[in-house]
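Replying to the earlier thread about multi-chain prediction with a worked example.

Input:
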Amino acid sequence: MSPLKIKKGATSHSAYDLRPTFSDKEERHTLAVLVENEPGVLSRVIGLFAGRGYNIDSLTVAEVDHLGHRSRITIVTTGTPQTIVQIKAQLGRFVDVHKVNDLTVEGPSVERELALFKVHGTGEHRIEAIRLADIFRANVVDSTLESFVFEITGTSEKIDAFAELMQPLGLKEIARTGVAALSRGSVA
Amino acid sequence: MTKTMTGAKMVVQALIDQGVDTVFGYPGGAVLPIYDEIFQQNSIKHVLVRHEQGAVHAAEGYARSTGKPGVALVTSGPGATNAVTGLTDALMDSIPIIVLTGQVPTFMIGSDAFQECDTVGITRPCTKHNWLVKETDKLSAIMHEAFHIATSGRPGPVVIDIPKDVQFATGKYTEARQVETHYNPQVKGDMEMITELAEAMEKAKRPVFYTGGGVINSGPAASQLLRELVAETGFPITSTLMGLGCYPASGENWLGMLGMHGLYEANMAMHDCDLMINIGARFDDRITGRLDAFSPGSTKAHIDIDASSINKVIKVDIPILGDVAHVLEDLLNVWKSRGRKTNKEAVQKWWHQINEWRKIDCLKYTQKGKVIKPQYALSRLQELTKNHDRYICTEVGQHQMWAAQYLDFEDPNRWMTSGGLGTMGYGFPASIGVQMGNPDALVINVAGEASWLMNMQELGTAMQYKLPVKQFILNNERLGMVRQWQELLHGERYSSSWSESLPDFVKLAEAFGAKGILCSDPDDLDDAIMEMLNHDGPVLFDCLVEKHENCFPMIPSGKPHNEMLLGEGADTANAIKSDGAVMV
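Result:
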């Protein structure tokens, strides 16, 4: 049996795709979801995205308040405005979800991601790699005679750009944390 | 003073404290300690079903007919997986039920133990919330919170998975009043929005109330307030399948059910209205038909307790987040304080138009010859039972739609049908739950022979507990709705849609010790129905009906409301185009 060829960028379609959308324009939103730190919460959130066909571009989760038993899930998602509103409403329904904030629309926010890069190379490549790392304010956290591990913090775009530059210089492996985000200003 | 007791005892104690009088269940290894506690008390009646799916549907029937949460108790592994259909059904129809599942002991979880399954994992997408209880000390608090969550906000099913060692161990019992919860959905609507709706109602020329299951779920007060609002305004009202009974069928403003098999006048009113007031309905695809042609010229208001239902598929102009009863109370107050103004002249013209549509008489049928038409069977059932306080359950398919069309519902909580999930096999166990909750009432399950067979084992339960549930089977020896769709859009190729090797239903009834009645002649129908009603015990009524009757009116999939197929003489050729055929 031969496997089916899936077109690049193809998504599954159902009858429900016949519905009109209020706007076809896809937007990227960063959602901060404060949840009860209980087993199963993350699975519930991910299951919602899988079950209802929403996108997850990035997902970060960790406990943020040990005594209060709270975790923060940061999700970067893309969808039409209508879909984004649905996602927020669906997340808000969960019993374990305390708060859903859309950092993209609720005023200015900062987003950061941390990434580790393993770059392998000697000679000119090695020198160029460390020069670029300096420009990007990446730190060397491990070094051998043929390799570096760089640590870099910044927006996803900055990390993408760094990855692109490292590619010809012997990039072997990347580990990224996904986006962490907070609103700017004094109000929590 | 804190009480200490075993986990199993806590389960029973918490059920008693929550006012539970009936539990539907089936024992097994992982729930033996709880069954041992049930054995040693008299406050809670346990109904032994014959299959766990039956237990969950029975709990649903109990909940929908009494307004109290239903409770089911099943064992681990297959007990839990058999409950999944019922849980999904309850989630789709927003029915508050608490399902307790046994689990292998905590120290065996994850070891592929006998009758182990990942119950909370499997049921996570089909419950409103679920818990795996790992400490006996937390069990009673979770039990109390479960009742709160199942019944508040948009109701739904919850699962509590209780490992066997947690049932055996001793712990502290927490009283309900000591439990803290942050789950507190908003019930009061925004007053500005409510005022905006009142303003829109004052100006409306062609208004319609579009009501749904949310009115029923909001409790009897919501139905009462709705009736007052309809009387105050004089606006026409229609309802979804789920909302039947929230406004009486005998009420003068009643248009009948709307949707795919709804009444012509109801669907036309929805299409042509200039103000649509959605109260506790969710713009389901059975209601809207083709979305881009759905009620094109109307301002839409939507009252719903679930924010995710608002603006999900239809863009709403006046969204009101809140509980139906709370919002209607405020709306009525605003309406009255502003002087009860309507555009009388325009609304009168609107009624004139509606009365023209009514003249189409879309439920017309002709009973002739010696074969019973299903519509006739239900019309007679309606006539002969209308003076009873009557509870109707259904299975899923043509008979369900005919029941919705030809039976009249005067009050809420009298109509139990699987709307969202469309679960064949729902009605019979649901009728058992209804009868348990309403021992003196007349409970009828309108069924098709194929649906009924899906949970026929529950005849044993009905007999054991002497539940006089009437199973009114419209037997066309076909999967009627499947057959109808195959006729309309699959070139009359009737692939696997007939019921072969059917049992002799009278003998089947007798094999369980129940009464069976066979009726095939329209002239005998009234007497046979009376015989069913007068029998004190479960009855299996095998009503042989016209085999190729189609269910009309019908909005073919992919079509808007104003392109309905009507009954007698409907032109069904090419009714559904290829883009509509992909829809279910």
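DSSP finds 24 helices and 20 strands in chain B.

Feel free to reuse this layout for your own posts.
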